[in-house]
Amino acid sequence: MNTDLQDYSHKRLNVLTGEWVLVSPHRAKRPWQGQNEELSKEVKPAYDKSCYLCPTNTRINGEVNPDYKGAFVFTNDFAALQKDSPSFAINDGLLQAQSETGICKVICFSPDHSKSLAEMSVQAIEKVVVTWKEEYEILGSEKSINYVQIFENKGAVMGCSNPHPHGQIWSQSSLPNEVYKKDIHQLAYFQKNNKTILEDYVQQELALKERIIFENDAFVVLIPFWAVWPFEAMILPKKAQKNLSCLTKEEGFQFAEAISVLTKAYDKLFNCSFPYSSGIHQAPTNGEANDHWHWHMSFYPPLLRSATVKKFMVGYEMFGSPQRDITAEIAAKRLREI
Question: In this structure, which topology does domain 15-337 adopt according to CATH?
Answer without folding.
Answer: HIT family, subunit A (3.30.428)
